[in-house]
């Protein structure tokens, strides 16, 4: 009997020691957020999460900022400054948001340090966007997040170009006044159409010079879906078509792109602008997936005689031609649907083993939200709660423009069904220069 008791005690002690060792192992995982050579925690909230921090680049002994940012205590972005890469390092993006993650304002800058364009928001939706250029200023005005007018005022105040949108009637009206005289006044029965001109320097919509704007459409009904994958930053341009794609613009890639985001598309792609302003800084990789469905694509090629006549008009008085019609026009229109889902992590621990552990749990969580399977156990949930993790779905639908937080598989299914049940809409307009009219 004595031996049995001793054996039982030994087994009990062994189990307790094993349990203690296991607990010690768990406690040894370092989930703290510490500064290093390239990352500096400036201040913290009472829960230990980041309040203010910045990333730096070091080049030839010189330290230059890469990102400066501030979080609210709940993990949302309060403000951020994003810099381009060294050696052409400059501030090019600045955002400011509310505690419930609504945009307040954003500003974008040129490499020379000049203000390029700025957006003011009201109740989370754009109210005014101003685009600055040596030619003048274009003021884009919105009502409930929908563009209602664009007014361009030239730098010398001699010219005003105004386009007003009546979305109820599906019409728009363009008026051009120069030196107090009306140069052009035209109303169109649809909002966006083949041949519509654009002054790309300020993203100012212009008149349409073509008599017949019937395009040739081809039904495609093609779709493309990407599975959940890690990306180094939150730039969604590879997954979300920019609404207006001007001639000569290219997607990021290669040494010529010194910026983190393809900010050229932020001026006129509201979904794209919304995403990059919510995720201007990533502490680690982000999880992304996307779905793109193209229902049809249209091409526009007016009769040769009309193109020849317009080319002659352009050659005779190029400044007047640009004043009326801009420098590019819509040549292709793509209809379809787009879904972009992002899972982002913030307040990540500095230790690699802890960060990798959390990333694996985050992937499992996001996959579970999407397919309804592989739910986290209690221990995994507790670990994931040590950081900020959010999954959000964006689409071309207005109610998805600022994203929908996905907290369950039901949230995801509902949002996807809303996209699938909606009619296909314009997902991209492609422009071409007027100079290409004859060569086409």
List keywords for this structure.
nine-stranded mixed beta sheet, 440 residues, 13-stranded antiparallel beta sheet, disordered N terminus, 7 helices, Outer Surface Protein A, domain 3, globular, 3 domains, alpha+beta
Descriptive report:
The chain has 440 residues and is of the alpha+beta class. Helix content is 22%, strand content 41%. The protein has seven helices and 22 strands. Strands 1-2-3-4-5-6-7-8-9-10-11-12-13 form a 13-stranded antiparallel beta sheet, covered by helices on one side.
Q: Roughly what percent helix?
A: 10-25%
Average predicted confidence as pLDDT: 90
| SSE sequence, one letter per element | HEEEEEEEEEEEEEEEEEHEHHEHHEEHE
Adjacency order of strands in the biggest sheet: 1-2-3-4-5-6-7-8-9-10-11-12-13
Radius of gyration: 27 Å
Q: What can be said about the biggest beta sheet?
A: 13 strands, antiparallel
Cα(first) to Cα(last) distance is 100 Å
Shape: globular
Individual helix count: 7
Q: Strand tally, please? A: 22
- What count of domains describes the coordinates? 3
Protein structure class: alpha+beta
Low-confidence stretches: 1-26, 252-258
State which percent range the strand residues make up: 35-45%
Show the helix and strand layout:
Elements lengths: L1 H26 L11 E6 L5 E10 L2 E10 L5 E7 L7 E7 L5 E7 L5 E8 L2 E9 L2 E8 L2 E9 L4 E8 L4 E8 L2 E8 L8 E3 L4 E2 L10 E16 L12 E2 L24 H9 L7 E14 L4 H13 L1 H8 L2 E19 L5 H20 L6 H7 L3 E8 L8 E2 L3 H13 L3 E9 L7
Parallel strand pairs: 17-22
Antiparallel strand pairs: 1-2, 2-3, 3-4, 4-5, 5-6, 6-7, 7-8, 8-9, 9-10, 10-11, 11-12, 12-13, 14-15, 14-19, 16-18, 18-19, 19-20, 19-22, 20-21
